[in-house]
TrEMBL record:
Keywords: Amino-acid biosynthesis, Aromatic amino acid biosynthesis, Cytoplasm, Isomerase, Lyase, Multifunctional enzyme, Phenylalanine biosynthesis. Pathway: Amino-acid biosynthesis; L-phenylalanine biosynthesis; phenylpyruvate from prephenate: step 1/1; Metabolic intermediate biosynthesis; prephenate biosynthesis; prephenate from chorismate: step 1/1. This is Bifunctional chorismate mutase/prephenate dehydratase. Residues 1-89 form the Chorismate mutase domain. PANTHER family: PREPHENATE DEHYDRATASE P PROTEIN, PREPHENATE DEHYDRATASE-RELATED. Residues 276-354 form the ACT domain. It catalyses: prephenate + H(+) = 3-phenylpyruvate + CO2 + H2O; chorismate = prephenate. The keyword Lyase applies. Gene3D superfamilies: 3.30.70.260, Chorismate mutase, Periplasmic binding protein-like II. It comes from the Bacteria.
Length: 358
């Protein structure tokens, strides 16, 4: 072996030892911060802090180390240190291996304490009652659109949106044998079925389809009934010991779902934020135009606007809106203040770090 390699490898070993030493020191500091926060009754979780650290780390890196790899490394370091303070309790639409579960793991890391529940409303209940610190709920899909249950619940429960994450969605047909001819019934979540409608009509036109509360629940059922097939994730096939009949059966590729992280905390500005609102306007010409003009005049970009029927009055509507920026940004704050002139009500749902679209 070339003698020139020995000093280089010795230096790498030395650097590795220094990295471990610094990681241990970082962990101790995180634990001390956790003790101080606990003594003062302050929330130990600061989800915006991770975004700030990653931004600073990437600036220090100056593009030398591969950025995506660096993000993964530092995200895991941050989550491990956070878990040493107190493991966050995170509710999600269960059982294990739903896309909500996958999103929760990607956002909080594997060291969090995950709480599976049966419905989206149950996620809100867990967070509202403080049995969970945070919840992960789907808010919209790139193909099927908004998840109405989530929009209605965020309004009714008065919780805050603390973050968001986008997950690429691929659907797979699975059963106990891996054979198409053994399928007598197909189960899945309504959104998953809707996203695979053409494939199912073409390949299995005579097989009955039934909806269940989640893709993972469908997989769990298929695991105990050999006549049933589920449309679910690869993680579900692994956890419930199912065989793949067909991969990637979604009708349109590039399918993704946006998930909200809900809680009771308000997130600090990071410089790359999004704000979510609910508002209602009087039933008169130009009312919505006046509200939208508040954003346009300040050059605040709207990323979403959606109307929903009001639960209080028939044929009346409320609007859900996402815009770029944080409520503590001067322009956004001024915009919301001016909106009050034209709105019957304005409800701030939260300002939080923007997720990266997939």
């Amino acid at each position: 072996m070339d003698k020139k390699l020995f000093p280089l490898r010795a230096r790498i070993d030395q650097i590795d030892a220094e990295i471990i030493k610094l990681l241990k020191e970082r962990l101790k500091l995180a634990q001390e911060i956790g003790r101080i926060k606990e003594s003062k009754g302050v929330q130990t979780f600061d989800l915006g802090r991770e975004k700030q650290i990653l931004k600073r780390v990437l600036e220090l890196n100056q593009g030398v180390f591969p950025e995506e790899t660096l993000k993964i490394i530092y995200s895991e370091i941050i989550r491990a240190c956070r878990a040493s303070q107190e493991k966050p309790r995170v509710a999600f639409l269960g059982p294990e291996a739903t896309f909500s579960h996958i999103a929760a793991q990607h956002y909080f890391g594997t060291s969090a304490q995950f709480i599976p529940v049966e419905t989206i409303i149950d996620v809100f209940e867990e967070v509202s009652s403080e049995r969970a610190h945070f919840g992960v709920v789907p808010i919209e899909n790139s193909i099927e659109g908004v998840v109405a249950t989530t929009l209605d619940a965020i309004y009714e429960y008065g919780l805050k949106v603390c973050g968001e994450i986008y997950e690429a969605i691929s659907h797979h047909l699975m059963n106990q044998t891996g054979r198409l001819e053994d399928i007598k019934k197909i189960l899945s979540h309504p959104q998953a079925i809707a996203q695979c409608r053409k494939w199912l009509r073409k390949k299995l036109p005579s097989v009955p389809i039934e909806t269940v509360s989640s893709t993972a629940f469908a997989a769990k059922w298929a695991a105990v009934d050999e006549t049933v097939a589920a449309i679910a994730s690869l993680m579900a096939a692994k956890i419930y010991h199912l065989q793949i009949v067909a991969k990637n059966i979604e009708d349109l590729k590039g399918n993704s779902t946006r998930f909200w992280i809900i809680g009771k905390v308000e997130m600090p500005p990071t410089g790359e934020d999004k704000t979510s609102l609910i508002f209602s306007v009087a039933d008169k010409p130009g009312a919505l135009f006046e509200v939208l003009k508040c954003f346009a005049e300040r050059k605040i970009n709207l990323t979403k606007i959606e109307s929903r029927p009001s639960k209080n009055e028939p044929w009346k509507y409320i609007f859900f809106l996402d815009c770029e920026g944080h409520i503590k940004d001067q322009e956004v704050s001024n915009c919301l203040e001016e909106m009050q002139k034209y709105c019957i009500q304005v409800v701030w749902l939260g300002s939080y770090p923007k997720g990266r679209q997939v």
